[in-house]
Amino acid sequence: MPDQVQLLGGQSLFKQEDSLSVTVPSGKYPSYNQFYVDINADGYMDVISTHNYAVILDNFYFYFFQGSADGLQFKEVAGTLFDNTSLSGDYLSSVIFADVDGDNDLDMLVGQSTGNLRYFENANGVYSLNDGHSLSHISHFGITTPTFADIDADGDADVIVGDSGGGLRYFTNHQGVFTQQTGTNNPFTMDVGTNSKPAFADVDADGDLDLLIGNGSIWYYYENINNIWRLQTNENNPFNGFADGTPNFVDVDFDGKMDLVVTTGRKTYYYHNIQRPIIDTTPPEAPLIKIHDTSLATGDTTLVEFHFKEKVLDFTTDDITAENASLSEFRQNTGLGPFVWTAILTPDTGITDSINTLTVGTDWHDVAGNKPSQPSTSANYKVINQEPPKISTTTTDWVFNTPPAGQKYFSIGDTMTLTLTVSEAVQVADTSAYITVANKRFNINKSAFDTSTDKTKLSFDYTVVKGDHLIIGDFIVNNTHLTGVTNAAGVAINNLTTELALLKNSDAFERKSGTENPLKFINGYLASLTPQSTS
To answer: H or E stretch including 116?
Structure first.
C-alpha cells in the first residue's frame, strides 16, 4: 500500500499510520467489507464485520469491535446487540448501516454471497430481520457489496449495490421504499470486471460525491462532474497504487475530516487525514436546531436535534435554555451525523404558552478554541396544558375496506383504504399525514375527511401495484406520521410509539386455493381482508 495519498487540489493529505488496530481473535476471519460507525453512540468509532470464509457455511456471524480513545484500538466485544444475529447458508457477507425508516436510529443492511440483500430493522436497539421490506427483495446479482449514499440529493440514503460481475445496481429511496433504476435512469453503467466494491466521498472537495470502486486488483476513481461520472486515470487518479482491499471513507477520530480506511480481511490500513489550516480564528457556525414536534401538550415529549458544521467541545445542557420545558437524554448522536447532538424535550405541566424557543448560548467552542459569535435560536414551539388526541390501539378500530364490487380480491390499480378511530374530533390541515403498514405507505384521504360528518375517523389509501407481496404477519402498523392532524385547540395528535399488529397469524381467513394464504399478492392480486368465522 502507498505511504500517503495527496488528493486533487491539495485539500487533504492522507498519511498511513499504525494507530488504528482491529484486534482479530485467533481462528476468526472478518470480511473485507468492515463498516465503521459509532453504533453505541459513545463518541468513538466502532467496527462491525461479518465472517469471511465458507468454513462456517451454516451461519454467518457479526463481529463487533468497540472503539475507545486509547490509540484508536478496536477490540472484539462479547455480549453486544449483534451476538444472536445470524443468517443461514452464507459467507463473504458485507454489512452497512443507515436510518432507512426515518426513526432516527441506524438500521442494518447485509449483502450476501448468495446474491441477496437482507434488511434488519432497528427497534429500540433490537435488530430484527424484516423480509417484507423492499430492500429484502433485491437479489440475484452474485456476491453483493451494498453501500448507502444520497445520490439524488433528496435527503435520504439510496442504495448502490456492487455485484460479482463488476457492475453496479442503483436503488432510489422514496420515503423508505427502494426502487431499482435502469436504463437512462441509472448513472452507474460502469463495469470494473469483477467483484465491485463501491465507496462514495467528496474526493475533490467540490461539494458533490465522487465514486471509488475496488475490485480486488485495482481501484477505479470516477469524478462527479455535473452529475456525470467520469473515469480518471494516471496522474488524475490519486489512488493509483492501491490494489487489494475495500475503500472506506470515515471520520475515524471525529475531527471533522474524512479519513481513509482500507480493509483486506485480517489487515486494516489506516490513512489519517492530516491536512489542517495553519491558523484558525474563524468562529464556528451556530447549530441548526430541529424540533420534531412544535405543538406539545401535557404528557408529550419530542426529539430535538442540534446540528453543527464541525467538531465542537464543551457543549452541554448548560448551554441550552428551554422555555417552559426541560431537556433529558442529552447525548452526541453520530447516527444522525458526525456533529449532531440530540435531547428529549418535555413541556412543563400546568402551562399554556404559544411562544417558546430553545436557545443555544456561546460557552462552547470548536477544536481551535473559537467560540461562536452569537447565540442561536430555534423555531417556535407551543406548550398547551391539555391532553392530546390519541390513536386507538384497539385493532377493531382499524378497518380495511372490501374489494371492489364483483371482485374477490384487490387487483393492480385498486385502492386499499384503512380507516382508524381517534379519541376525539380532529381537524386535518393538509395531505402530509400517512401511515406505514407492512412497509407500504397509506396516504391520508383529506377529501374524504372533509366531507365526512364523523371527525373521529381518519382514512388512509394505498394503490395496489404489480409485484406487491403480503402475508398475514405483514399486517403490522410500522409507524404513523400524522403531521397536520390536531384537535380544535391546535394540539397535535400523538403518533404510535410501538408497532401495532392489526392481523395475527392465529386469525382464520378465507382460503384462495388449497392451503395458500389469501393475504398474499400473486400476479398483482390480493384476497379479501375480511376474517372468516372460526365457528
So the answer is: none
**Alpha carbons 301 and 214: distance in angstroms, whole number:** 46
User: Which residues share a beta bridge with 181?
Assistant: 170
What are the chain's domains? 14-273 (2.115.10.20), 288-384 (2.60.40.10), 399-501 (no CATH)
Task: Give the C-alpha separation, 223 to 362, whole Å.
Answer: 39
How do residues 187-230 score in pLDDT, each as one tens digit? 998 988 888 888 888 877 677 888 988 887 788 889 888 888 88
* Single-letter code of the amino acid located at 97: F
273: number of Cβ within 10 Å? 22
Contact status, residue 376 vs residue 291, Cβ threshold 8 Å = no
Task: Show Cβ contacts of residue 246 under 8 Å, excluding neighbours closer than 6 positions.
Answer: 32, 33, 34, 145, 197, 199, 214, 262, 263, 264
Query: Which grid cell is 361?
Result: 448560548
CB atoms within 10 A of CB 386: 13
Say if CB 67 and CB 39 are below 8 A apart: no
- Bridge-based pairing of strands 177-181 and 197-201 is unpaired
DSSP secondary structure code for residue 380 in this structure? P
Instruction: From residue 218, give the alpha-carbon distance in Å to each of 125, 221, 240.
Output: 38, 10, 8
Partnered with residue 429 across adjacent β-strands are none
Question: pLDDT tens digits for 435-493?
Answer: 988 778 899 999 999 999 999 999 999 988 776 665 545 577 877 888 889 988 888 88
Radius of gyration of the chain (CA): 25
Using an 8 Å Cβ cutoff, are 190 and 222 in contact? yes
User: Which residue from 453, 288, 446, 454 is spatially nearest to 360, judged by alpha carbons?
Assistant: 288
Per DSSP bridges, beta strands 126-129 and 117-123 are antiparallel
Report phi then psi at 395, rounded to 5. -65, -25
Query: Mapping DSSP to helix (H, G, I), strand (E, B) and coil, where does residue 451 land?
Result: helix
**SS3 of 399-448:** EECCCCCCCCEECCCCEEEEEEEECCCCEECCCCCEEEECCEEEEECHHH
Structure-block grid coordinates of residue 479: 409507524
* Sheet with 376-377, edge to edge strand ranges: 320-322, 358-360, 376-377
Single pTM value for the model: 0.56
Is the backbone of residue 322 left (phi > 0), alpha (psi -120 to 50) or beta? Answer: beta
